[in-house]
């Protein structure tokens, strides 16, 4: 996915914007961009982050160093170059966003037929932010245009628009990606992640509602569109994607993961010597499991973080595999002849867990390895964020294809953890992964740990069910 930040200040906003944007680096590894306005002109700078970190790219850039202004937006992008500066009929705006548009090709083709020109076409595909700008430009006002855009796209999109008059912040129609509003003396900030501004002195005021639009201008905040009534926050933000220090709708990510670990332990019966979390996102689940069960936590796989990014984020499987191989190093003496529970945030593709992490544990002499993912088996590619796109990318779907000889359409029996089909699938998974046992967290337990209610969560990747307004 991506992370976006907007800052409006009585003084130069650049430092707050720089650090707040950098605190979203866990959400993407492709591009980092910043745009700043002094009320007269809008400047921007974009860097490729494939080979260097956001901070180093921008701190050495003389063009960025010379930028100044009291309003700005920043983005860490997982796919498109952004922000883009677009000349709309309402004026000039820098635009950035977080989300994914499934029908982007169809929308772009329809606009091209009408004579609309696209300048940003990397690898022959449209830049989603340019597409969004073209759709917004069809409205009678900026707000009307954003609403129109939300009615046209199949997917999700939260946006920031920086103009000479200030910043518009618009949350996705169903709130799938978060936007939090915060304040400190003389400045406002709106951001995807609350962790982005805690060290900068901002205090959260509230979270924007689904489809809500606000304007930051003249050192005040004005609501220009009220929120809708249907919330579908991405649950995977809690499970894996979000940073532990962040909150979504008031629920802290680390607290969710510890609570989930407690629930997993309460429903587990295995006899083991210790519990361990795989990677940073699995650690809190292990602590929760340990607190509930009394089983000690150990760290048999140690992550070498200085030179390696998150292995889930890069779009290339080759890069993901390389990171998985190189980043985790075994402490063999802790593993040899030991029975262990491994808490894992999820099993998405399954390749890293199977081909690298579990192999390392067995090679170090593990006696038993019991894997406990903190969410159900992922059955459907995500429609709303730039993530998995095909059935073949999902471990559970590959297992079902192995069982049936093809991808099946009706997976309902495999979503019921009490069914014979589900139990058979788990046995095949255990054999494929080469683990002593595998037990997924159930949907209702995962949802309960968020304390938000399942009706307010997007669970499409597990159930294939999508909630829409009538």
Automatic annotation (TrEMBL):
[4Fe-4S] cluster binds at residues 234, 382, 458, 461. PROSITE patterns: GATASE_TYPE_2 (PS51278). Pathway: Purine metabolism; IMP biosynthesis via de novo pathway; N(1)-(5-phospho-D-ribosyl)glycinamide from 5-phospho-alpha-D-ribose 1-diphosphate: step 1/2. It is an enzyme of class 2 (transferase). Keywords: Glutamine amidotransferase, Glycosyltransferase, Iron, Iron-sulfur, Metal-binding, Purine biosynthesis, Transferase. It comes from candidate division TA06 bacterium DG_78. InterPro entries: GATase_2_dom, Ntn_hydrolases_N, PRTase-like, PurF. GO terms for molecular function: amidophosphoribosyltransferase activity; iron-sulfur cluster binding; metal ion binding. Binds 1 [4Fe-4S] cluster per subunit. It catalyses: 5-phospho-beta-D-ribosylamine + L-glutamate + diphosphate = 5-phospho-alpha-D-ribose 1-diphosphate + L-glutamine + H2O. The lineage of its organism: Bacteria, Bacteria division TA06. GO terms for biological process: 'de novo' IMP biosynthetic process; purine nucleobase biosynthetic process. This is Amidophosphoribosyltransferase.
């Amino acid at each position: 996915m991506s992370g976006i930040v907007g800052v409006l200040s009585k003084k130069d906003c650049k430092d707050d914007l720089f650090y707040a944007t950098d605190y979203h680096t866990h959400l993407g590894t492709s591009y980092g961009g910043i745009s700043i306005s002094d009320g007269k002109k809008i400047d921007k700078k974009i860097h490729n982050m494939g080979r260097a970190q956001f901070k180093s790219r921008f701190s050495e850039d003389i063009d960025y160093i010379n930028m100044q202004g009291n309003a700005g937006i920043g983005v860490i992008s997982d796919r498109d170059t952004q922000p883009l500066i677009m000349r709309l009929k309402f004026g000039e705006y820098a635009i950035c966003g977080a989300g994914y548009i499934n029908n982007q090709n169809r929308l772009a083709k329809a606009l091209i037929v009408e004579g609309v020109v696209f300048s940003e076409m990397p690898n022959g595909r449209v830049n989603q932010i340019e597409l969004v700008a073209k759709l917004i430009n069809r409205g009678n006002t900026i707000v009307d245009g954003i609403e129109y855009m939300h009615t046209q796209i199949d997917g999700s999109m939260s946006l920031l628009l920086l103009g000479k008059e200030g910043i518009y912040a618009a949350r996705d129609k169903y709130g799938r990606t978060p936007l939090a509003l915060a304040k400190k003396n003389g400045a406002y900030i709106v951001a995807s992640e609350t962790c982005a501004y805690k060290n900068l002195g901002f205090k959260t005021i509230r979270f924007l509602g689904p489809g809500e639009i606000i304007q930051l201008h003249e050192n005040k905040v004005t609501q220009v569109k009220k929120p809708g009534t249907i919330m579908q926050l991405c649950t995977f933000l809690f499970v894996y994607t979000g940073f532990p220090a962040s909150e979504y709708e008031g629920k802290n990510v680390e607290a969710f993961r510890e609570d989930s670990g407690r629930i997993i332990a309460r429903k587990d019966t295995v006899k083991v010597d210790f519990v361990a979390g795989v990677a940073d996102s699995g650690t809190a689940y292990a602590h929760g499991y340990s607190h509930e069960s009394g089983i000690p936590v150990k760290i048999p796989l140690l992550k070498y973080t200085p030179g390696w990014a998150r292995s889930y984020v890069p779009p290339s499987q080759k890069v993901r595999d390389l990171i998985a191989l190189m980043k985790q190093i075994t402490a063999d003496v802790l593993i040899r002849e030991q029975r262990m529970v491994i808490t894992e945030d999820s099993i998405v593709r399954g390749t890293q867990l199977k081909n690298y992490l579990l192999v390392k544990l067995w090679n170090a002499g593990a006696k038993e390895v019991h894997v406990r993912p903190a969410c159900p088996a992922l059955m459907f590619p995500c429609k709303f964020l730039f993530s998995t796109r095909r059935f073949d990318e999902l471990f559970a779907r590959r297992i079902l294809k192995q069982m049936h000889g093809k991808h099946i359409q009706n997976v309902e029996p495999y979503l019921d953890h009490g069914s014979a089909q589900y139990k058979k699938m788990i046995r095949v998974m255990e054999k494929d992964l080469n683990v002593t046992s595998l037990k997924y967290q159930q949907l209702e337990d995962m949802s309960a740990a968020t304390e938000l209610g399942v009706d307010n969560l997007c669970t499409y990747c597990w159930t294939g069910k999508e909630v829409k307004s009538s």
